[in-house]
Design goal:
single chain, mainly beta, 13-stranded antiparallel beta sheet, 8-stranded antiparallel beta sheet, 1 helix, globular
Length: about 700
């Protein structure tokens, strides 16, 4: 291979985590592209490096390519707290936006001075003229603490969203209390009206909302963020035709239901990264969406000493849209190394730091303060044909926009107008573009789309599509004067539209249909005499015992697993009712090495929710660690699968979890692993609480060759 080609391939690679250059941990990342053309990310308040021991209060990182990041300071110094924050308050989970000509950062304040309680969470906000500050706190919480008995609801993890009618919303909340949305004042700094719940409690936190193809997508992180080597965080989604919901998943199950819905977007896949979640989204210059999120390296899960601060570095991966639903790398999950990098430079690319030598028709146009100002038509000397994306930041109180050949997209006081040939459409643009906005035009065949956003974060203020032809010189147009910056034109991304394969079943290797006594192929760990085969099922009264922790009083029914790749499946009927507290009754499959080394996939009651949890217990640093991963929504009768695969590179046993409500449509979740030489058996469990009495009825256990 030619050396130049090799060099190009090396340069096109990036390695996760992308935050390694400046930090060991950078949790809950938010991201925005600044008006200076750089990308900025913001993280939860933690020390950045092992051994540092000093919290950075909302640290900031900067990048020109989304892959190589440098530390750019902290938003706030150690004593810089808003007036309503109690001494010692922490700042968590920032969200960053550009609203009406200024940067607005929202964040969790862990302790509020207005109540004597600890952990009386509220949502704060600060504003700044640049992405790095100086930041000025507003004088009151955007969302105040919300009491619940002797505690306070999780008023955490803010995410702002602006709709096409100009209304601003803030999503927030967590496991204790669920996810909520409130409308904001026009300046985005005060909650108005009554908040509305959009996702059930005990399942979601870390909300993020985007608009895509006419739907609103609510994405939330599920399970536990911070269980060290057993952290099972993942991202799930629902969608709606309104920013207020109701949000339902791909199967039509509401996110507010007791048997709560959620379509997987990002799950751990068996490589070194677990606990993949709390994300932000962005779009590169080619139009490809990407996700920034944090994860945990399972071999190094803590920042310093074990069971201290979880080490959660920042990762970057491609975000695809498959049949109308978001999926990281088409469902492949986190990457360790990627050959795909975001497009952050275009064929046409000007940040206006110099002269206008790359442009024609420059009369009446001048470069000043890092942007170009003028009127008329400024035409690039470079051009490209075919499917393209052209964008610019612009500011005008008249009329200005982009020209591609004979096609124009122009913003004005009347709205956004897209004209191509004889086709022309205008849509409203609330507030106009008197402050900086981003205008992007995509050409895909004869379909031309123009979108206006304030901050390029998947919440278009206006969007319009026409059928036409857009080939020819690329230019900027202005009637009466306008300012332009960050102009780019790049080949349009090639969308990935097919999901990666999920586990399938091959030939049947072994089965027990439970049409007779429990067979000799089964062995018990702590036999339960109450479990019996009758009426064609294994009927097992749920035990008042558990496997988690050191007690280990629950029974386990096991059989030997075949060699190589296989899929074990069961169908279990477990009537846990709805809404009532039934902690933590459950039944399902288990991959079992010992009482302190297992992966358990079960339908479970977690307070008022019913979930399919895929939990893992193991020993780390001389202590037991347990955490969970969430799969699909359960039903009264739920089908469960564990798909076993041996990693050819390291010999690890990988078990991926799947669930179904009808035995036909499967939702696949995350992967838990066991070391190479571990002897893992497969089996059943039914435990977690004996009151009220309930039977787990297993119709069968079938083992298939993996396909």
């Amino acid at each position: 291979m030619h050396l130049a080609v090799i060099a190009t391939l090396i340069l096109s690679l990036f390695t996760n985590p992308v935050s390694n250059s400046f930090s060991d941990t950078f949790a809950d990342p938010a991201v925005i592209r600044g008006q200076d053309g750089y990308w900025y990310s913001y993280g939860t308040s933690d020390p950045l490096r092992e051994g540092e021991k000093v919290l950075h209060r909302l640290p900031i990182a900067r990048s020109s390519d989304l892959v190589n990041w440098t530390y750019a300071g902290d938003a706030f110094g150690p004593g810089n707290l808003p007036s309503y924050a109690a001494p010692g308050s922490l700042f968590w989970a920032p969200d960053i936006r550009y609203l009406d000509g200024r940067y607005v950062m929202y964040f969790t304040v862990t302790d509020t001075a207005s109540t004597p309680a600890n952990w009386d969470y509220s949502i704060g906000a600060a504003t700044a003229p640049t992405p790095t500050g100086p930041w000025t706190h507003i004088d009151a919480p955007v969302v105040a603490p919300r009491p619940s008995g002797n505690a306070h609801w999780n008023t955490i993890d803010p995410a702002q969203f602006t709709d096409v009618d100009g209304r601003k919303y803030l999503y927030f909340g967590g496991f204790f209390g669920g996810l909520w949305v409130t409308e904001l004042s026009a300046d985005g700094l005060h909650a108005t009206g009554q908040p509305q719940q959009v996702a059930i409690d005990n399942k979601f936190e870390g909300a993020y909302v985007v608009r895509h193809d006419g739907h609103y997508y609510l994405l939330g992180s599920s399970a536990n963020c911070c269980a060290g080597p057993t952290t099972g965080y993942s991202v799930l989604a629902g969608r709606s035709t309104s920013p207020r919901g109701p949000f339902t998943d791909r199967e039509g199950v509401p996110l507010l239901a007791s048997r709560a819905g959620g379509t997987p977007v990002l799950d751990q896949n068996g490589n070194r990264f677990i606990g993949t979640g709390h994300h932000a989204q962005l779009t590169d210059l080619s139009g490809q969406d990407w996700m920034l999120y944090h994860a945990i390296d399972r071999s190094d899960p803590f920042l310093d000493e074990p069971y201290g601060i979880n080490e959660r570095p920042m990762l970057l991966d491609r975000l695809d849209w498959i049949d109308g639903w978001p999926a990281v790398r088409a469902g492949a999950g986190p990457s360790e190394r990627s050959r795909e990098t975001p497009v952050t430079r275009g064929v046409v690319d000007d940040r206006f730091a110099g002269d206008l030598s790359g442009w024609r028709n420059t009369a009446g146009w001048t470069v000043q303060d890092g942007y170009v100002r003028g009127q008329g038509t400024l035409v690039s000397r470079k051009s490209l044909g075919g499917d393209v994306r052209v964008e610019t930041d612009l500011k005008t109180d008249k009329s200005a926009g982009i020209r591609i050949g004979g096609t124009t997209a122009v913003v004005s006081r009347d709205g956004l107008t897209l004209a191509s040939g004889g086709a022309s459409r205008t849509v409203a643009l609330p507030g106009g573009a008197a402050t900086w906005h981003n205008l992007a035009v995509t050409v895909k065949g004869r379909t031309i789309t123009a979108e206006v956003t304030e901050d390029r974060l998947r919440d278009p203020r206006a969007s319009v599509t026409v059928t036409g032809s857009a080939n020819g010189p690329i230019g900027l147009v202005a009637d009466g004067g306008a300012d332009f910056d960050n102009v780019s034109a790049a080949p349009l991304f090639k969308a990935v539209t097919k999901a990666v394969p999920t586990p399938r079943t091959g030939r049947l290797l072994d089965a027990d249909e439970f049409d007779g006594p429990i067979g000799s192929g089964w062995t018990w760990v702590r036999q339960d005499a109450a479990a019996r085969s009758e009426e064609g099922v294994l009927r097992w009264p749920v035990q008042g015992a558990d496997l988690v922790g050191a007690g280990n009083k629950a029974s386990v029914l096991l059989r030997e697993a075949p060699k190589g790749d296989y899929v074990v499946e069961t169908k279990v009927t477990l009537d846990l009712g709805e809404d009532a507290v039934r902690n933590y009754q459950q039944a399902g499959l288990v991959a079992y090495a010992s009482d302190d080394d297992f992966a358990r996939l079960s339908q479970v009651a977690i307070w008022n929710t019913r979930q399919v949890e895929y939990g893992r217990e193991l020993t780390f640093a001389d202590r037991l660690s347990y955490g969970g991963n969430i799969v699909g929504p359960p039903a009264k009768t739920t089908w469960l699968r564990l798909a076993h695969h041996v990693d050819p590179a390291n010999g690890e046993h990988e078990f991926r979890a799947g669930s179904s409500r009808d035995g036909k449509t499967w939702t696949w979740g995350g992967v838990w692993t066991f070391p190479k030489d571990t002897a893992v058996r497969i089996g059943l469990v039914a435990h977690g609480g004996a009151q009220p009495a309930v039977n787990a009825d297993f119709d069968y256990v079938r083992v298939y060759r993996g396909a």
